[in-house]
Amino acid sequence: MTTGNFWNLNQGPAIIRTVAVLLVAFLAMSYEIQGGMLAMLPHVMKPTAWLAFALFIMAFTASSIQILFPGSYGRWAMKNRRYIGLSFALVHFVHAGLVLSNLALTDATRTVGELSGGGLAYVFLGLMALTSNNASVRKLGAKNWKRLHKIGSYYIWLIFVARSLGELPGNLPSGGVIAVIGLTALMFRISAWRKLRK
Ligand code: HEM
């Protein structure tokens, strides 16, 4: 770890540790306050999805923000992108665990379409998390690795945005916020790509 101000730091694993501690504290507090697993479930599924979305957007926009608005934040996000992505995977797999518990323990149901669309996002997320290390980049080759992470992240982006748009206006304001931030992130990526091509 280097010295310097916060944005200069390569914080790597500390990001995952902080996210894991916050997540466990949030779930333990909800368990206590709501008085058990069953009562807690309806209160924790959305917040875990929001935290996952925030981390996803940080990883998804890291390079475009640095290209469009070079500065301390973009440099920090680029340096720590792998760990931000792994933190996203951790939180989002917890979201999946909560959703599955809710399906198993309550009479909530989901269509096969919903389960398979979301399930494929988890297949990509699992592959991306497992290959987020230098050995996998060498093994797959930089081109294939990039392809996997690009397709995976756009698919996950699509599920976030499509899910939020699809449930409007019933899920306002959170669904609207997710859709607007998601579409803005895509515009950043397109603008950065166009800037690099010039
Ligand atoms: C495997 C299938 C999945 C199922 C069955 C599922 C189910 C759920 C449920 C039950 C909630 C809570 C809704 C509520 O409290 O009203 C939720 C929230 C959410 N999920 Fe999942 N989920 C799945 C996968 C995913 C995936 C893959 C993503 C994104 C890539 C995602 C993104 C979200 C978001 C953004 C919310 C919060 C929505 C809001 O606040 O309006 N989910 N999900």
- Give the CA-based shape: globular
Overall mean pLDDT stands at 95
| Main beta sheet strand tally, sense and closure | none
The number of helical segments is: 8
Question: Number of folding domains?
Answer: 1
Hetero ligands: protoporphyrin IX containing FE
Q: H/E element string?
A: HHHHHHHH
Summarize the amount of helix as a percent range. over 70%
Strand content: under 5%
Runs with pLDDT <50, length 5+? none
Report the radius of gyration as a whole number of Å: 18 Å
N→C terminal distance: 36 Å
The secondary-structure class comes to mainly alpha
Work out the number of β strands.
0
Condensed summary:
With 198 residues, the protein is mainly alpha-helical.
Give a topology summary.
Blueprint: H1 13-34, H2 37-68, H3 72-79, H4 81-105, H5 112-130, H6 134-140, H7 142-166, H8 174-197
Bound molecules: protoporphyrin IX containing FE (HEM).
